[in-house]
Amino acid sequence: MTTTDTALSAPPVTDREQVFIGGRWTDSTGDEWIELIDPWSEKTVARIRSATEQDVRRAVDAARQSFDSGIWAGKSMAERAAVIDEIATRLDERRDELTTLGVLEVGVPVTVSAGTQQMTASLFRAVAEEARNFTVREDRTRADGGISRILSEPTGVVAAIIPWNGPIGTIAFKVAPALAAGCSVILKGAPDAPASPAVFADVIAELVAEGRIPEGVVSVLLADREVSETLVTNPGVDHITFTGSTGAGRRIAALAAQRIARVSLELGGKSAAIVLDDADLNHVLQSLPMGGCMQSGQACIALTRVLVSRKRHDEVAAALSAAYSALPMGNPWAPENFLGPLAGARHQERVQNYIDSAVRDGATVLTGGGRPDGLDRGYFVAPTLIDGVRNDMRIAQEEVFGPVISLITYEDEDDAVALANDSIYGLSGAVYTEDLERGYALAQRIRTGTVSVNGSVIDFTLPFGGYKQSGVGREGGVEGLAEFFETKTVHMPASGH
């Protein structure tokens, strides 16, 4: 299950002594640092300057001035799309550096991180293409003969707050469509993943220096929770788009509600995979282990509840137990590994506490359950399959954010749907069946934003988002671009009036 090639290690990462405000690296008004700790070596590998409340105000002021001037919003969609394509090209040129940072920030193996970087550039290009085809004006004829023009206008100054578990990819989700729409953006990175946003800032700095992006349009900051909240509450910010935990999303929504600021939220998940009795076990084994343990389970879309009937319980439990225990885990710099360490010591402890709580509640660990044998260094938790889980247990209701899968038994199809929907979350899900129409019909009954039939499809160029407490709004596709527009109706009189 594990490999421990200690000869493979991370390339060096550069410290960042300044903050990025309005398109330029500049001195901070404070002297605090954020450390990047390698989850494999458990050592600090870089330091990045933390922003102050004054730095946040400077960034908002720059964004507000640039947006109100129309210097970026006044450009055509085609002009902005060309710049977004250029951002994709320059991120591609930095793929090796970003791949390294994906390993250091999230703990994912190098091959997984490389795939993420490739996807990120593709997402920028997909947004650029959507922008070229997006209609920002539609004329409608009224009954009185007049024309009403329906305009799509940028939402304004956007605070884009991203998580630690996929920093560069989430930048593509948020900053690319915001810029395409004509917004000015303050990107706020997560303290646990501080370096990838700085590389993105380098790209923006180049484009500002070349005159491709005006000054003031983009700032990139790192800050703790207290300072970050001043960004959410700043009246100069029109729109907050946030990806992270549901708890943090509730806090942001509450703060934004005080001034009725626009909010887009992509939050947590506790997604269910329903294995129907006619399912081909090969289809299940081809996708479910990856679907549940991607990024060592540090993914909001992870399929962490597996629902199986009593009839097939023993068969499915044995097969999944073997599959999860066989996933290669170890040194993230070894290309053969699929799973690496969790992102930090505190997170490792949190995941272990969830496993222990499930055992106390009467569940049984079939495989995994703690640190893998032979891996005494790094923040590891082995892929863990827990049987005998009831849907009212904490392990079945709360987002663990680790490679921990709950096996839950259902009585019939209606019971399976009820169990899948018995959650505050509604982000993702899956149905396994040999009858595709049956799978489609069942998918429609599951209250979640995405459902895959016989697989775990990940295509972020399509709309993605959640029901219930998994979020508000959509990312990806034309729907994700539309999030950054307001709708205005202009009534024009009939001819001659």
Automatic annotation (TrEMBL):
InterPro entries: Ald_DH/histidinol_DH, Ald_DH_C, Ald_DH_CS_GLU, Ald_DH_N, Aldehyde_DH_dom. Keywords: Oxidoreductase. Residues 25-490 form the Aldehyde dehydrogenase domain. Pfam families: Aldedh. The active site is at residue 266. One of its GO terms (molecular function) is oxidoreductase activity, acting on the aldehyde or oxo group of donors, NAD or NADP as acceptor. CDD domains: ALDH_AldA-Rv0768 (cd07139). PANTHER family: ALDEHYDE DEHYDROGENASE, ALDEHYDE DEHYDROGENASE-RELATED. Belongs to the aldehyde dehydrogenase family. This is Aldehyde dehydrogenase. It comes from Nocardia jinanensis.
